[in-house]
Amino acid sequence: MTGKIITISRQFGSGGRTVGREVAEKLGLKCYDSEIIRQIAEESGFSEDYVKENGEYTEGSGLFNNFGPVDFYGRSNRITIWTEQCRIIRKLAHEGPCVIVGRCADYVLRDEADLLRVFVYSDMESRAKRVVNEYGETDEKIEKRLRDKDKRRAAYYEIYTDQKFGDPQNYDLCLNSGTLGIDECVNMIVNLYQKDNK
Amino acid sequence: MTGKIITISRQFGSGGRTVGREVAEKLGLKCYDSEIIRQIAEESGFSEDYVKENGEYTEGSGLFNNFGPVDFYGRSNRITIWTEQCRIIRKLAHEGPCVIVGRCADYVLRDEADLLRVFVYSDMESRAKRVVNEYGETDEKIEKRLRDKDKRRAAYYEIYTDQKFGDPQNYDLCLNSGTLGIDECVNMIVNLYQKDNK
């Protein structure tokens, strides 16, 4: 395999997904985001919505909610999704350089690929703005919604990886999309990648 | 005031101080690091070594050790140093664009200057290597020394700023000098700064 794989961890609403897509476009790489969800759904039989919700978030705020329903063999649905997710991420990574957004890919590939591990985050205010623009308003207060998503995504990451979500130590580069702007985040990653792969 | 001020927070042994100096050199800016210590010592009457140790670290691992000896007016020496440190950082910042390494400058200047806030960090192994190269061996085990420094620097930052040391939210950019290398960290900051100040 030549060239690095870029993994993008991101806070909900930080625009990390957009960053991933634009980086991939500029570098002529594939970007895996909803594609992973589609493949997990296909292989596991769960709906895409179910995979989306259970492949990156714990069910509630308590750890005891984490494993949810079990299948015929006593395996939790979440464990099934996690196992499938790991398998698909490894398969995609072995096909060649690409950008993978979310899904703990930085952790899954830590020992088997040359990675550029990026974390995209932002302040509450600019995330709230972006989420309302992208997904529309809901009855729930936007800050509450963000805090709930943060908590559940962090808990998911911590349970499956035994690492702290958003801890700089897990990444090569952490970018504040709220102050730097999406374009600058994209440029920095692209420049770094191009230098590394000269 | 035109142009941003670059603040560099750094983990002990990450090479953040070197990054700061090289960034300043490339941009033709002044870099304030030991200069701040010298000025605090001059104004407060404490020795430079005392200021160095008490202007960025708590005394021991317990919070109760934080304020240490008091002066004639009942003010803790640490509070005196902190107050002087804030005053000098503000004064230097108002003289024009510069690079300030450490000393909670990101927090002190948060409401009064246009900042590019950088955090430089690295993994334990490469920090240990750098510290031994730079400061030599000691009787104390190097990892223990680093962990102790981390704990005391983080406690200091948290007590005086009410923010978490090393939390990406406090910075625009967090760079892993262990995986990116010092030169690349310098380049990224310089490029970003030059774009911002075109």
Structure description:
- 2 copies of one chain form a homodimer.
- Chain A is built from 9 helices and 5 strands; from the N terminus they run E-H-E-H-H-H-E-H-E-H-H-E-H-H.
- Chain A has 198 residues and is of the alpha/beta class.
- The longest helix of chain A has 20 residues, at 142-161.
- Chain A is globular, with a radius of gyration of 17 Å.
- At the A-B interface, strand 5 and helix 9 of A face strand 5 and helix 9 of B.
Question: SS-based structural class of chain A?
Answer: alpha/beta
Largest sheet entry of chain A: 5 strands, parallel
| Rg result of chain A | 17 Å
Q: State the oligomer.
A: homodimer
| Integer average pLDDT of chain A | 86
Instruction: Give helix % range of chain A.
Output: 40-55%
Low-confidence stretches of chain A: 61-65
**What is the count of DSSP helices of chain A, taking H or I runs of 4+ residues?**
9
> Beta-strand level of the residues of chain A, as a percent range?
5-15%
Could you tell me which chain pair has the largest interface and how many residues each side has? A-B, 19 and 19 residues
N/C terminus separation of chain A:
15 Å
The total beta strand count of chain A reads 5
Morphology of chain A: globular
Order the strands across the largest sheet of chain A as they lie in space. Answer: 2-3-1-4-5
Order of H and E elements of chain A? EHEHHHEHEHHEHH
